Amino acid sequence: MAYLDDDDGVPASLIFRRGYSYTYNDLILHPGLINFPADAVDLSTRLSRNIHLAVPCVASPMDTVSEAAMAVAMAALGAVAVVHCNTEAHIQAAIVRAAKARRLPFVSSVPIFSLASAPSLADFAGHDYALVTERGDSLSKLLGVAVAADATNPSAPLSDYMRPAPRSASSSFDFEQASAFLADENLDYAPLLSEEGEAIDLITTKDVERIRSYPKLGKPSLGADGKFIVAASIGTREDDKRRLEQLVQAGANAIVIDSSQGNSTYQIDMIKYAKKMFPQVDVIGGNVVTIAQAQNLIASGVDGLRVGMGSGSICTTQEVCAVGRGQATAVYKVASYANDQNVPVIADGGISFSGHIVKALALGASTVMMGSFLAGSHETPGAYEYKDGHRVKKYRGMGSLEAMTKGSDARYLGDTLKLKVAQGVVGTVADKGSVLRLIPYTMQAVKQGFQDLGASSLQSAHDLLRADALRMEVRTGAAQVEGGIHGLMSYEKKPF
Ligand SMILES: NC(=O)C1=CN([C@@H]2O[C@H](COP(=O)(O)OP(=O)(O)OC[C@H]3O[C@@H](n4cnc5c(N)ncnc54)[C@H](O)[C@@H]3O)[C@@H](O)[C@H]2O)C=CC1
Ligand SMILES: O=c1[nH]c(=O)c2[nH+]cn([C@@H]3O[C@H](COP(=O)(O)O)[C@@H](O)[C@H]3O)c2[nH]1
Ligand SMILES: [K+]
């Protein structure tokens, strides 16, 4: 019989009672009993009432994070991305459609030309091949392929050297089917065509080798339509109703209503409208950090809640507006209410490493939403640049001046509000490689954390939390220093 000491750690229900706003770093979770291997930990979860995921990770709706490439990679991994709305509605819908047209874990971004064009080698943008279609864009009839090595004379029209397309693969092929197709047909590359014969993409043996170098893909996130699950964000303005309709037509499985303070009549009206018009699509509301806010949105019919205000790495909301909450407290409080209402919680922002994910999930979240953690990966929009010898990509807050003047102008500056005040910054993050590698390694670390807790699944972690069996403590400043790397002259931190 285990020796029980009331003070041998305290349950969350006591920790979060004292009028402090705690963040992940303030807390340390206590170990439980290990009686299963780390590989046996089941991290499967729900994004929202009706959307099941094998991997509890969500890519933020930000224009330096989530477009088609992130959406297909995350869905192929068993996770999900929320396509941002900082662009015209028809472009956002086209991104959702492009992601849902694929079953491969990547978007190759091969150039697509029309027969009348005369591309230069530079127009191939480093690709060995390009597709030639009737209209010169995707979702148009495939005419043939262009090979970069043939583009020696920039004034020569493509019709002079276009090659007939080799046998095409179906865009509904997953990675294993597509790589088997290339091998069986003995091809170096193959166009991917939709059932209607439209050009979707192109796969090469180089792509196959690259994907094979990553950890094996698990169970993908697939909707009832058999296609990748893709979510998309909208705002709460009148014209967001038209955006919503276009996104639903494009096949979006979930709609995230994107706001820093979700407890508004604007959002409540939009939730009701969306649920009435498209009851088959899950609506995720937010952001909220208190039970009172959550109550309003749940009463309005949301299927999921996004939690976090000012906790993001690029967020200045707490500095600018003085409003928000420590992320650990916010997640615990909102989840303790929402989980009772069968509404899953997304812990949004402030995830810097795998331990933060363990803490967010152990405190009641069903998924974590990440911006900076995924920023700088191959799958994010934007090009790499070099800064002080480091390969970096831009990452910016959606409330930064730069992002606001790009697309969300109407949202911030329209109507009566004419003075721009930023609630976010623009920065850079290091190259993270592919999320197809980053997420599996990170999830392995999260499984090891769950094993340490003695929780063999996300459900079991939530059960331990509710039963007050999960113990934890607040760390002093010195304990936090002790928990990090210290006392070394120099070191190299290589996580995997
Ligand atoms: N999670 C966080 O801590 C934060 C996130 N952000 C991100 O920045 C972006 C923008 O967030 P917000 O500025 O909160 O966007 P928002 O669209 O909720 O609010 C912008 C402004 O428009 C007003 N507004 C919204 N709907 C309206 C309507 N129908 N009629 C009249 N006025 C209306 C709002 O009250 C607010 O003043 C999002 O991507 C959000 O996720 C920004 C700050 C903090
Ligand atoms: O105060 C803010 N100003 C902004 O400009 C901004 N842009 C994004 N977000 C929120 O931050 C989350 C991503 O946070 P991380 O980089 O820490 O993952 C995202 O998922 C958002 O919730 C913002 N918050
Ligand atoms: K912050």
TrEMBL record:
Question: Which protein are we looking at?
Answer: Inosine-5'-monophosphate dehydrogenase
**Organism field:** Lolium multiflorum
Activity regulation summary? Mycophenolic acid (MPA) is a non-competitive inhibitor that prevents formation of the closed enzyme conformation by binding to the same site as the amobile flap. In contrast, mizoribine monophosphate (MZP) is a competitive inhibitor that induces the closed conformation. MPA is a potent inhibitor of mammalian IMPDHs but a poor inhibitor of the bacterial enzymes. MZP is a more potent inhibitor of bacterial IMPDH.
Q: State which pathway it belongs to.
A: Purine metabolism; XMP biosynthesis via de novo pathway; XMP from IMP: step 1/1
Pfam families assigned to the protein according to its UniProt record, in alphabetical order: IMPDH (PF00478)
Task: Describe the location of the CBS domain by residue ranges.
Answer: 162-221
Chain sites annotated for binding NAD(+): 258-260, 308-310
Cofactors, names only? K(+)
